[in-house]
Design brief:
Elements (H helix, E strand, L loop, with lengths): L1 E4 L5 E4 L3 E5 L17 E9 L4 E7 L3 E8 L1 E6 L4 E5 L2 E6 L4 E6 L7 E8 L9 E6 L10 E5 L7 E2 L4 E8 L4 E5 L5 E8 L1 E4 L2 E4 L3 E5 L3 E6 L3 E8 L1
Length: 232
């Protein structure tokens, strides 16, 4: 079964400093039909105006992955990390027993564009930890590249959960197919471009939950980029 999540049907917060689209219930957006997918609880697409962002706030017992798609994000946290993430950088925080952090757009003139994903951990109360890695545009070109996994294999970020994240960048006209485990669930999020997913057109911002499927077939109608999340 494939359940599509239209980009225009997502929850939306339009503020003075941040425009955010929520694939699942988050903050003031509540929809009992969209509370998450398996261990995936949050998938937010944020655009942050120059000089603004998210002031210091706290998290516990959550695996938080941030993909910077455009611009930059200045990150500061209670673990002592003070870094600037640029387009192509991926960050993972295991909030565990508790962290505090802030995220700001340091640019004077360019909006920051990012995806933030929250996944429930396999076990609560772990010691908080932090990782980041840059995945260059040429990585994942017409092939899946692993960016997060339980064991950190192939240079991926390490998740405290039986979940994997992969990026794919397809050239226009290219197609790719991969086998799926029908016992697992998969979420596809289109980051850019237009693709066909098992014959159905999807565009930037669209998502899809795949359950009980054995094959994923993707065809790029334009140059396209997407995120695949594999969940137990």
């Amino acid at each position: 079964m494939i359940s599509f999540r239209d980009r225009g049907a997502r929850g939306m917060h339009r503020g003075a400093f941040v425009d955010a689209w929520h694939s699942f219930s988050f903050g003031d957006y509540e929809d009992p039909r969209h509370m998450g997918f398996r261990d995936l609880r949050v998938l937010n697409e944020d655009r942050v105006v120059p000089g603004a962002g998210f002031a210091e706030h706290g998290h516990e017992d959550m695996e938080i992955v941030t993909l910077v798609l455009k611009g930059a994000i200045a990150h500061r946290d209670s673990m002592g990390n003070v870094v600037t993430l640029n387009a192509g950088d991926v960050q993972r925080m295991s909030a565990g027993t508790g962290i505090r952090h802030s995220e700001m757009n340091p640019s004077p003139d360019e909006r920051a564009h990012a995806l933030q994903i929250w996944i429930l951990p396999a076990e609560p109360g772990v010691t908080p930890s932090y990782e980041q890695r840059r995945f260059a545009p040429e990585e994942g070109r017409n092939a899946f590249v692993l960016i997060a996994s339980p064991d950190g294999r192939d240079g991926s970020l390490r998740l405290n959960q039986d979940a994997r994240m992969e990026m794919l960048r397809l050239d226009e006209g290219r197609s790719i197919a991969r086998q799926l485990d029908s016992a697992r669930g998969y979420w596809v999020q289109v980051i850019g471009g237009i693709i066909g997913l098992n014959g159905t057109e999807m565009r930037e911002g669209d998502g899809a939950a795949l359950t009980g499927e054995t094959m994923l077939e993707l065809e790029a109608d334009t140059e396209a980029e997407l995120l695949l999340i594999d969940l137990r």
